[in-house]
Write a structure and sequence with these properties.
Blueprint (H helix, E strand, L loop, with lengths): L1 E5 L4 H12 L3 E6 L12 E5 L5 H7 L5 E4 L9 H16 L3 E5 L13 H11 L1 H15 L4 E7 L1 E3 L8 E2 L11 E3 H10 L12 E3 L1
Parallel strand pairs: 1-2, 1-4, 2-3, 4-5, 5-6, 6-10, 7-9
Antiparallel strand pairs: 8-10
Helix pairs in contact: 1-6, 2-3, 3-5, 4-5
Length: 207
């Protein structure tokens, strides 16, 4: 399939590109500085653009079968939600339906999965703006009318790709480790392109 990745030069995006190409997809990497991708492949295209610029996003969307959003902004707010809204508007305009969006474990009803540290120290303190940004991002995705899936991974680790992780666990589950490796996150995101098990759902993802 032809897939465009927003946030392509981020820590998840780079794994998405490599794995997607290995699986035979045609990948478009959208980023402010796609030259940071030190990878050459006949099925890899690069688009230089700003996700906060509606015209830039709208010009990149046509011709793709699926969109994966892995936007990051550190502890800052607004980039994820505003960028995702621009992506949604462009998808609606150009009739592109499949949207996979990476959010965070703890957003929405998955807040119940968190322990005290993540609830009250991280998301209520240090990462407060980023958390609010993810919440608004999810709101836009749910209201989009698109064929969406929101993936909520735990804290990223630098571990290897294992293919062994838990997903779709209930909000009442307190037994996960609240962490998952970046390559495993990328693997699960890519699976959602063709697997519609979690269509219009928000599965958590963790070890």
């Amino acid at each position: 399939m032809k897939v465009i990745i927003f946030g392509a030069t981020g820590t998840i995006g780079k794994h998405l590109i490599k794995q997607g190409l290995d699986e035979g997809h045609r990948i478009t990497a959208f980023a402010r500085a796609p030259e940071k991708l030190f990878l050459e492949h006949p099925n890899l295209s690069r688009i230089t653009g700003d996700v906060l610029n509606r015209d830039s996003v709208a010009a990149a969307i046509p011709g793709h079968d699926a969109v994966i959003v892995v936007l990051g902004a550190g502890i800052k707010g607004n980039v994820r939600s505003k960028g995702t809204l621009n992506i949604i508007n462009a998808m609606q305009t150009h009739n592109i339906q499949r949207l996979i969006c990476q959010s965070t474990l703890g957003a929405g009803d998955s807040r119940k999965n968190l322990n005290f540290f993540w609830k009250y120290i991280m998301f209520a303190g240090l990462l407060r703006k980023a958390y609010a940004d993810h919440q608004l991002q999810e709101h836009y995705v749910r209201a989009s009318g698109l064929d969406w899936t929101i993936v909520r991974p735990g804290a990223f680790t630098n571990g290897q790709r294992t293919g062994e992780y838990r997903h779709g666990f209930p909000a009442s589950d307190k037994s996960t480790l609240l962490k998952v490796s970046r390559p495993d996150v990328a693997e699960f995101l890519l699976k959602q392109i063709s697997d519609l098990k979690y269509l219009h759902s928000s599965p958590g993802l963790s070890y």
